């Protein structure tokens, strides 16, 4: 049912070589959801914790939502964020802007593309909460066309509680968009909760995997409702290696040069400062990647 991407020996060695050098936190990206703070606070926290890059949210989830630090149509804030990141040596990896709902128009989301371009960020994350697949594909295609003109890649993220619930559905949207630059954001939690396994990643050509998000989770119990899935994703993830998700296999299936973003939003950290959250995430991520490296080294030595 699923076509398999070829994994040649040279590709496997490339992945191993990359991971040999991925034992410092500088090689990982901090997800904005891990921090739950303003863009400026997120950049500061990433620098304090030693992350080499970070993603930032620059507006609410819906057009018109309140946002603590207005970024859209705010040139002074955009310049300040860009300079802050440069001064601290933190690369701005990706931007999360408005999500797509039935009422979302392309005119609503154009400012997100403009701000992302002005920030110099190369990736925009997109999520759909529009139940009409045909309508979303039309809007998404227009969005990708505008982003491509601004030299920005759009990374569509499927969420099992959204309008695009599975890897297969997300890949079909990418194909239907006719955009050469659009691709997928692969989240280890969403992949597992949608019923897929890491091997299913092979349906997506390597060049269409824009980046991946790493976290862990408990075994699921109770009813798998949209609300329960959303609450877990936004506040009940586990540090990598402390749950049941097949994360070693997940990393094995990613393209050799795939960017890894650490996204672990935890309710038990909600009272901590952004820098404290980032520092704990950095320690957890480094520990897990060391385990993964040791496992790869052991396998290579056999």
TrEMBL record:
The record, for Gene3D superfamilies, names: Divalent-metal-dependent TIM barrel enzymes
What SUPFAM superfamilies has UniProt attached to this entry? Xylose isomerase-like
Q: Where is the Xylose isomerase-like TIM barrel domain?
A: 46-255
Pfam families xref list: AP_endonuc_2 (PF01261)
InterPro entries given in the database record: IolE/XylAMocC-like, Xyl_isomerase-like_sf, Xyl_isomerase-like_TIM-brl
Any one GO molecular-function label of the UniProt entry: isomerase activity
Entry keyword set: Isomerase
UniProt-recorded name of the protein: Xylose isomerase-like TIM barrel
Q: What is the protein's species of origin? A: Advenella kashmirensis (strain DSM 17095 / LMG 22695 / WT001)
């Amino acid at each position: 049912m699923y076509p398999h991407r070829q994994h040649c020996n040279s590709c496997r060695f490339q992945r191993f070589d990359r991971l040999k050098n991925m034992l410092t936190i500088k090689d990982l990206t901090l997800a904005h959801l891990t921090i739950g703070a303003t863009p400026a606070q997120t950049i500061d926290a990433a620098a304090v914790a030693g992350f080499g890059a970070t993603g930032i949210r620059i507006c609410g989830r819906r057009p018109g939502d309140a946002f603590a630090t207005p970024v859209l149509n705010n040139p002074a804030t955009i310049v300040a964020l860009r300079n802050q990141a440069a001064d601290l040596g933190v690369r701005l990896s990706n931007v999360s802007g408005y999500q797509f709902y039935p009422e979302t128009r392309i005119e609503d989301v154009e400012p997100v593309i403009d701000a992302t371009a002005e920030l110099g960020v190369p990736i925009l994350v997109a999520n759909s909460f529009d139940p009409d697949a045909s309508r979303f594909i039309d809007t998404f295609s227009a969005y990708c066309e505008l982003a491509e003109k601004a030299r920005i890649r759009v990374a569509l993220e499927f969420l099992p509680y959204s309008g695009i619930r599975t890897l297969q559905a997300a890949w079909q949207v990418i194909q239907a968009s006719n955009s050469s630059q659009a691709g997928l954001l692969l989240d280890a939690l969403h992949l597992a909760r949608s019923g897929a396994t890491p091997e299913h990643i092979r349906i997506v050509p390597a060049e269409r995997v824009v980046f991946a998000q790493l976290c862990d989770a408990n075994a699921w119990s109770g009813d798998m409702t949209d609300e329960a899935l959303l609450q877990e994703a936004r506040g009940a993830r586990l540090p990598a290696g402390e749950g049941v998700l097949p994360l070693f296999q997940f990393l094995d299936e990613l393209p050799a040069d795939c960017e890894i973003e650490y996204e672990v939003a935890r309710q038990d950290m909600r009272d901590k400062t952004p820098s404290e959250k980032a520092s704990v995430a950095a320690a957890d991520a480094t520990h897990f990647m060391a385990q993964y490296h040791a496992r790869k080294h052991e396998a290579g030595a056999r």
